[in-house]
Amino acid sequence: MATLAISETADGGRVLALAGRLDASTIRPLWDEGRRAVAAAQGARVVVDAAKVDYCDGAGVAMLIGLMQQGGPDRVEVANLAPAFAALLGQFDAERLARDLDPAPPRRPAVEETGLVAATIWADLKRLIVFTGETAAALAWAVRRPDRVRWKDVWMICERVGVDALPIVALISFLLGVILAFESAVPMRRFGAELFVADLIGIAMLRELGALMTAILLAGRSGAAFAAELGTMTVNQEVDALTTMGLDPVRFLVTPRIIAALLMTPLLTLFADLVGLLGGAVTMHAFSIPFVTYIREINGIVDFGDFMAGFVKSFVFAVLIAGIGCLRGLQARAGASSVGDSATSAVVSGIVLLVIVDGVFAVVYYLLGI
Amino acid sequence: MAAALPDDPIIRVRDVTAGYGETAILEHVTFDVRRGEIFVILGGSGSGKSTLLKHMIGLEPTLAGSILIDGDDIVTAEGDLRQAILRRFGVMYQSGALFGSMTLAENVRLPLEEYTDLDDGEIALIARMKLAMVGLDAYTGHLPAEVSGGMQKRAAIARALALDPKIVFLDEPSAGLDPITSAELDALVRRLARGLGVTFVIVSHELPSIFAIADRVIMVDRARRGIVAEGDPRELCDSSPDPWVRRFFHREAEPLPA
Questions:
Q1: Which positions 60-89 of B are in contact with A (Cβ < 8 Å)?
Q2: Which of A173, A230, B43, B106 is at a distance of 20 to 30 A from A270, taking alpha carbons?
Q3: pLDDT tens digits for B37-60?
Q4: Chain B CA closest to residue A335
Q5: Which domains, and CATH codes, for chain A?
Q6: Residues of A in Cβ contact (< 8 Å) with B100
Q7: What's domain B1-88+166-252's architecture?
Q8: Across B14-22, average pLDDT
Q9: What is the pLDDT of residues B189-231, one digit of tens each?
């Protein structure tokens, strides 16, 4: 415990007699009392008598310095502090500590802020273009020199991107098929047209939803993983190490990931298509449409072109997801939060790009009459 | 304030087997750290000294044995008792381990905000003092990524000292520091140990710094699975019966086979 006794001197000054143990758990009330006493002295001398202080750690010293700062060093004097604690106090310059030597920079005016944002977007766009070029060059190199591609890495990433994603892709596609069928079968039944739900599911899953849902799942799963992995490597200077070894980080890290995504995304899309159709079949069965009728109906309406429309998209989606994930990872700067930002940005910009590209495909298919 | 009392150990390590999972790295390790002393755990790379430190600060459970921190066993403690033990010491990790999204001052403020009822201005002053102690009061508003590795380390020491703990563990404090900063750090450690009776447990292999500040050292070796030497570093350097220990202190390489 610690105590503070305040007495007034003849000239209106104060003597603050401290006693006991000064540490973070005891100084709180003393500091307040001391502050009031220094203020009450109104410019007269204040002596802090520390003769009876038997322990004073960093927090206690902070209180003494705080009082000295408040009254000014010529007005507030600390007396009789034991030599060990005085040495601790002596290492600090109360005046220097009163100043914030590293203040936060002032807020920029709105115009400057807008300009900065624009410049950042422009730089990001340029980086994207450069990265696209680098990736294309690295892929062309991989085609010319397939023996130099790190296939061990490719297979490992294939497993993580493809095989490990099977359960979640199966679950989402199956539910998608079930829900799509159910939601459309209920109103269509009123017209006795529930058989045509099979057409709807067949076309929607194969042309659009199989590819898009798989791509969105992969953006959330593998795009984020790529960004976090490469981001951590960047933060840990592993990417710098590759560069100084004369190894191109894009060729070394990005190429295997893009190849793995290119191999796995179409297969997962195919899988999602089939599981989605199966989900639809289960619902249709509940609506008394036999499995054989369902298949025959889909066979009649869906042709190979519909399947290819979705399948071709999945290759483009694969490059997008892997590319954005890797780019965001390589753009990480420093620290744990920057890796988090990379992963977030990979998922967000990945999904936005997926939707835009899907829209472009829809227009192109329409114009080509596919 | 306590002077170093020979029979008043603040940490008692008893018959500890250190390691991870099934793999034992050091076996039957027993030693005491006395109150207020500067105690150094020495050893070559991969000797298990950092593993031993991890056990002492309660990050990894020991495979066997007990570690008493001021009377309480950190290996078995749970709940409030464990929390109380953890507040008795501060740790500086080898890489600094500062929180990257916080400025240096915010890093030092964090334990003060969580564990004391001081107001904002008071905490700000203490944080600035702690950073001034390690010569970083002009960098309070910088993020860890904006300062050098050595500065990060010094800020980490300031954070470890934030609550004025009785014991401070430093993992390789001098590695990566320039000689002047390293000497200043040694002086700071000595001042805190002698002035406030803070106990320091330092994992290191920086010989100049060890000779300058260590009261006692233990030397661990993985090949022999335990402590190979214990005592005053100068005495060990001059007169250890163990040739490996003498070679270590004299910085001599393994003799080449003829």
A1: none
A2: A230
A3: 999 999 888 888 889 999 999 998
A4: B100
A5: 2-98 (3.30.750.24), 115-368 (no CATH)
A6: 334-338
A7: 3-Layer(aba) Sandwich (3.40)
A8: 90
A9: 888 888 778 899 999 888 888 888 999 999 998 888 889 889 9
A-B CB pairs within 8 A amount to: 92
Q: Sort out which chain B residues have CB atoms less than 8 A from A69's CB and list them.
A: 125
Contact A62 B112 (CB under 8 A): no
CB A272 within 8 A of CB A213: yes
Q: Are B185 and B157 in contact (CB under 8 A)?
A: yes
Is residue B166 within 8 Å of B88, Cβ to Cβ?
yes
Positive or negative: CA dihedral B236, B241, B247, B250:
positive
B1 pLDDT higher than 80: no
Of all residues in chain A, the one with the smallest CA distance to B145 is A334
Where exactly are the structural domains of chain B?
Answer: 1-88+166-252, 99-164
> Could you report the predicted ipTM of this complex, rounded to two decimals?
0.80
H helices present in B104-232, as ranges? 104-115, 120-133, 149-160, 179-196, 207-213
Q: Are B140 and A65 an interchain contact pair (Cβ–Cβ within 8 Å)?
A: no
Confidence of residue B6 (pLDDT cuts 50, 70, 90): low
Mutate which of B126, B130, B188 to test chain A, going by most A C-beta atoms within 10 A? B126
Look up residue A293 and give its amino acid.
T
Contact A214, A265 (CB under 8 A): yes
Tokens describing residue A286? 């509940």
The answer, yes or no, to whether residue B5 has pLDDT greater than 60, is: no
B64-87 per-position pLDDT tens digit: 999 999 999 999 988 899 988 988
In this structure, are strands B9-20 and B64-69 parallel, antiparallel, or unpaired? antiparallel
> Chain A: nearest CA to B89, how far in angstroms?
14
Facing A101 at nearest CB: one of B138, B143, B164 = B138
Low-confidence ranges of chain A (pLDDT < 50): none
A52 CB within 8 Å of a chain B CB: no
Q: What are the tens digits of pLDDT across the range A128-180?
A: 899 999 999 999 999 999 998 999 999 999 999 999 999 999 999 999 999 99
Nearest to A214, CA basis, from A270, A280, A298: A270
- For chain B, say whether A85 makes contact (Cβ under 8 Å): yes
Cα A127 to its chain centre, rounded Å, is 19
